[in-house]
Description:
This protein has 130 residues and is an all-alpha fold. It contains five helices and no strands.
Amino acid sequence: MTSPDLPFTPVGGSDKQAAIHNRISVIKRIEFLSGVNLQSKSKEYLKALDLELYKRWYHNEPRTKRADEEFCQRSAEVIQDIEKNGFDLDQREFDDALSHHKNKPEDGHVDQQSEGDSKNAGEADQPVED
């Protein structure tokens, strides 16, 4: 087991044993960074965490993106926000995000152009002004 006070480095391999080892190491690393034990949190809390991570950073990542140190640090940041401000899980938004994630290509990024109108392809999303 890797030490939670050191940056997370996944063990190699694609077997069940490696996957379990990596998941445990990620949970312990996130606890070290955030001070929050995810094992004691509710299902709704974990869904809110997943949804916020997806919305902030991972909506354009492939389904097969693996956890890394950046994931642990981003998770700790979101957890700190949740602990400070609370959360209100929108189950419909969670279900939509989960569906979107499941329908992504396994090894490619979701391209905004492929999801909508091509007339603005290549342009960054701009905030809407009131």
